[in-house]
Specification:
By secondary structure, the protein is α+β, with helices and mostly antiparallel strands. The chain has four helices and five strands, in the order ααααβββββ.
Length: about 150
């Protein structure tokens, strides 16, 4: 029994070490915000297809971050800081590559994510504004904007 516990503990320690190395690698990847925004804009659908997180993740990959799993849109509030993005004040002027993440509210259980291309927010479609649904305009709706400098 002690050998099994020791083996499990060694496995956990190894898993933590590998995970930490991978996160450090991802955090130090070069980020090309312009390329990410260009990719998002060129690949956006005409209207929402309900896949904002996948589209923004693919834009992040195009921008230099090899992020092959991403989860739901709201997960990025916790993932982006790990990847070297910093939350910025919502009153700051937007810069190309900034990413907005809305937390779940009402029936919008997956949240929403979009990237700023210098002219508009782009998710799985080219948005008219940062708010894509009236639920996200409610004052109790939580959202954050992130930026990564290189």
């Amino acid at each position: 029994m002690k050998r099994i516990i020791k083996g499990i503990l060694l496995f956990i320690v190894a898993l933590i070490a590998v995970s930490a190395s991978l996160l450090l690698y991802l955090r130090n990847c070069d980020w090309n915000a312009e390329e990410a925004a260009r990719y998002a804009t060129e690949n956006a659908s005409e209207k929402s297809v309900g896949l904002c997180a996948m589209y923004v993740r693919k834009a992040m990959i195009a921008g230099g971050i090899p992020l092959y799993q991403g989860g739901n849109a709201w997960h990025y509030k916790y993932l982006l800081p790990i990847l070297g993005f910093k939350e910025i004040d919502k009153k700051e002027e937007m810069m190309v590559g900034d990413i907005v993440v809305f937390q779940p509210i009402g029936k919008r259980k997956f949240g929403h994510i979009a990237i700023w291309n210098g002219k508009q927010w782009v998710s799985d479609f080219k948005q008219r504004s940062i708010i894509v649904h009236s639920d996200y305009a409610k004052k109790e709706c939580e959202y954050s904007i992130f930026r990564r400098d290189n």
